Amino acid sequence: MTLDPARREGVLDPARRAQVLVEAIPYVQRFAGRIVVVKYGGSAIGAAEDASALARFAQDVALMRAVQMLPVVVHGGGPQIGEMMARLGKTPEFRDGLRVTDAETLDIARMVLVGKVNRDIVGVLNVQGALAVGCSGEDAGLITAAERNPALGFVGDIVAVDPTLLRHLLSEGLVPVVATIGTDGAGQAYNINADTVAGAVAESLGAEKLVFLTDVAGVRAVPADPGSVLTSTTADRLDELVASGAITGGMVPKARACAHAVRSGVRRAHVLDGRVPHALLLELLSDEGVGTMVAAS
Hints:
The protein is of the alpha/beta class. The chain has one domain (32-295): Carbamate kinase (3-Layer(aba) Sandwich). It has 11 helices and 14 strands. It has helices at residues 5-8, 14-31, 42-46, 52-66, 78-87, 103-127, 164-171, 194-205, 235-244, 251-263, 279-285, and strands at 35-40, 70-75, 94-95, 98-99, 132-136, 143-147, 156-161, 175-179, 181-183, 189-191, 209-214, 232-234, 268-273, 292-295. It has an 8-stranded mixed β-sheet, sandwiched between helices. A two-stranded antiparallel sheet has the order 3-4. A hairpin with an 8-residue loop joins strand 6 and strand 7 (156-161). Helix 4 crosses helix 6 (103-127), helix 8 runs parallel beside helix 10 (251-263) and helix 9 runs antiparallel to helix 10 (251-263). The relative contact order is 0.15.
């Protein structure tokens, strides 16, 4: 059957398709059996006009698992929490970029992160055959947290990560999907920055890679210049960019998590544009890569 020109658009010819597969072989061999922690940002989730972006992400994760990589998904949900608060008539309050989280806001965050976003990601991954299992930091002592600042309410900092649950799930061929709620020794729940959680989880597992999927093309050396995206950088350079104010807003915790992770044994960290179709596969299984790659030095 011959495809008409409209259907040919975007379709690889057989030779190029074979070349893509051959190009992926060394990466498949290198990363087989290695843990890759992927932080799927709430902004990347919300950027989709329909379910297609989430479905492509699920296909990437399913393929990673099919070639014996060990993906762990950590997700955010800030925009989704904000939307639910608006629907419930509650006005968000932020201090230094952090959401003030009283008891009612904490309940909303748990409901959205654990009951909605986590279940949506798990459901789509399972449709693609990835055998995903949802959990939160509250489960099996995964994330122990402590209050960051009384003025912020139930916003937590990570005290410790116990990866026992995640290692058990991975050993059973499952894909853990982690919602970023932690608890203290008394069982009090806290909402924790998802970027920070992703970095800490990667460190606790001795991950090969830590990948942030967000809604920008990568780390910019000059905030206002889209052409200044760094294809590769180091932990020290990220520290300099944060200190100088070149990295601001939501990119700050990502940069700090990347820098800390690669200094703590994670081999590489990456900041990718989750809106790019199959960005995960392009970065992990191709020569060209996308986004910003971070090394210790």
